[in-house]
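Hi again,

Forgot to attach this to my earlier email, sorry! This is the prediction with zinc ion bound. I've pasted everything inline since the attachment limit keeps bouncing my files.
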Amino acid sequence: MPEKILAELPPGAKCTRCRAHPTIRLPSHHANLCTECFLHYFRTAVRRAMKKFPLPADTPLLVAVSGGKDSLAVWEVLHELGYTTKGLHINLGIDAFSADSVQAVKEFAQKRSLSFAEYSLKDIAGHSVPEIRRRTRRKICSVCGLLKRQLLNRLTIREGFRALVVGHNLDDEAGRLLGNLVRHRTQYLEKQYPFLPSSHPRLPAKLKPLFRLENHEIQTFCRLKGILPIQTKCPLSHGATSHTFKEALDFLENNMPGTKRDFLFSYVNRRSPPESTHPFGTCTQCGEPAYSDLCSVCNVLKHLDRERGGE
Ligand code: AMP
Ligand code: ZN
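Structure tokens for the complex follow:
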């Protein structure tokens, strides 16, 4: 809450950068910033992230926008920094939640004269998320996540782009790193990097330009810029283990400000972008890149039909 941030500022504090009256406290940086310096800090964090990615500076970017704060904030900054961007939204068909999500994206784009493409999961995959939920015994969040990831890749290429931007932030990435380390998932750890190169002519490079910015910083940015993201959470998500890892890091952060950044950056900074070496095959069903005979999308859809058939 902004009011809380203001209240926590020590009396007589000055902006760490310009000595003006500060409005925002950044405990992990041991800094207090005025609004202008905060916006400068925020843009610089995105610019630094983009510089780190091995991608020509004039690459057009397709921004995956859910209607949440992260993806709208990243779209705003990339646009401000002069990148050529277009939005991409997948309507998941989750009643009011999806209707509100589309509305948030539409309002954002209209105000800035930015264009975005909207696709419906039902049209592309034949089922909305609630329908899939009724037809599978698997956790809906993991099925939905898998479909979103794969379809965002495909739609990026279909839209004529080679680079996909997603809104994952420092908290998301640090939580994921902790989860992968706890479970010693070497295969995922190798891919734990804010940039993934294209590993197939039909797969885009994937960028996470917000990986240096924390949840609360993104909230503040949206408030300052008048960005109105959806406020509700997906009604189908509950008790994801990723939340618990994030909470564990929040505990450490509260006791030792800066720990979350140290944890993620000490890992990421020692690594270079993963190599694109996977020898992909082709899905026999849909012709998209696949590790085996069937791609993961066709595999999910096949099992849905089977489970439905068994009812
Ligand atoms: P999530 O996995 O829901 O936390 O979302 C992570 C990122 O995926 C978001 O920041 C967006 O960039 C993207 N994303 C999630 N849902 C959608 C959607 N329905 N349409 C387009 N992009 C999405
Ligand atoms: Zn397929």
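DSSP finds 13 helices and ten strands in the chain. The two ends are 48 Å apart (CA to CA).

That should be everything now.

G.
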